[in-house]
Amino acid sequence: MNHKGHPETGRRWSSPLRFLSRPWCALWFVLLWAVSCSSRPAPNTLVMLIEFSPTNLDPRVGTDAQSEFIDELLFDSLVRKDQNFNLLPGAAERWEIPDPQTYVFHLRPGIRFHDGRALTSRDVKWTLDTMRNGTVTTIKGATYKLVDRVETPDNLTVVMHLTEPFAPLLWNLSEGAFGIVPYGSGRDFKNQPVGSGPFRFVRLDPDSQVIIERNDQYWGERPRVERIRFAIVLDATTRALELLKGSADIAAANSFPPDMVRALERDRDIVVERHAGTSLAYLAFNLRDPILKDVRVRQAFAFAIDRETILRYLYSGLGRLSDSVLPPEHWAYDNLGAHYPHDSARANALLDRAGYPRGKDGVRFHLTMKTSTDDSARLLAAVLQQQLREAGIALDIRSFEFGTFYADVSKGAFQLYSLRWIGYTNQDPDIFEDAFHSASFAPKRANRGYYSNPEVDRLLEEGRQTLDQPRRRQIYAQVQRILARDLPYVDLWYLDNVLVHTPRVKNVQMGVSADYLFLNAVELAKSGR
What we know:
Elements: H1 22-34, E1 45-50, H2 65-74, E2 79-81, E3 87-89, E4 92-99, E5 102-107, H3 121-132, E6 147-154, E7 157-162, E8 199-205, E9 209-214, E10 227-232, H4 236-244, E11 250-251, H5 258-265, E12 271-285, H6 295-304, H7 307-314, E13 319-321, H8 344-353, E14 365-372, H9 375-389, E15 393-400, H10 402-410, E16 416-421, H11 431-436, H12 454-465, H13 469-486, E17 489-501, E18 505-506, E19 523-524
Parallel strand pairs: 1-10, 1-11, 14-15, 14-16
Antiparallel strand pairs: 2-3, 4-5, 5-7, 6-7, 8-9, 9-10, 12-16, 12-17, 13-17, 18-19
Helix pairs in contact: 6-8, 12-13
């Protein structure tokens, strides 16, 4: 399994249109006037608004999105990913795989940690060993369970021996999942993290700010801004006001609900940039349910849902319809499987053939969809409830506080639910093993709907042991086509990455991932907003 962030916590947006109500608009301008004289960021400092405080800046431990995104700026990984999730050199300038269970990495000479120490093979070995032997407490250690031992024949060579072939290993040594720490780093490393990346750590004030500065000795292309202050602001309205009054420069991608984005777009001192994203919204079924175990019922669901209309009106069109867990940019993406455009007639015909006639009230059967109490989640469920009525499906909605809802989902206690994969789909296609292999049933892993197909199991096992990428692409294409037929999920849409900033921020090169790596290239205007 690939490790990346908290994949399903998502953005918890307020309900659409609330932001544009007249009372709210009046309050908006009163607040803006009240703070109009606030201080502006220093000329050499970029102020970025983030929603939560990072939980742990030790890259061996932190798994929340904020920790991983900031760690990517502070630490080097052995390899990197491009925009199509192909692998490129990182701290390792090259590598060889002499046999399926041996990986040899050759480190770049001259890399130094922020405290001046040279980065060597001993540091890479320490990083891996401490995640695997309990020196630090981390769930990331399971990612490297197939690493038998790590050898360091010289200062610039790392040899990893595996107990069995494991093709996703390289992706698990890329940014976000892996960051090299200095030899001897212990449990308290999070308090003063020292990396070798393009920025160095300055300070962390929990629930207030994180400050990092440019590493002028960085081995690669150096950042163009001298200092970044990540200001932690939980409330979306407050974040918007900070941008409007000029006391902040930029907000993390996808920080605002769609209705607020529309309002901000109308301000001439605000720039809104959009890029196709990879955060997947999906609808999942429990295949142990006596009704939902019938594939015709699941296919009827897919035809009954008007995804395009929901995306346009509920999310202001800030996304694109999806037909696979993997995004179209991914090297393993395939879209030649079954497709499910909105078609009420086909939905009704499938349910008729499945043996579910309409009752006198027009209802074929009742199903329950669990959601969180978040406004956007409940609104999505309400729209699905209305659309499914045309097919004779009565959808009952049960909303719970997020922790309770997610606990039920994680142990498979549901008929239907909808969530998002965030950062999950940017990884090696071995993510399918975690979500759809019959050995990955909840509560142990992410196959929460108890999907089981022996052919999919066989393909997934072959895929994780096959090193040849063209062959792997063929394997995962077959997996995607089977999943499109069997429909353990209805893939809904990929939400766009929306970045809001002031005109002071230049050269924004946002990609398909909603991470902070674009900060390596941004510049600040010398004067004015």
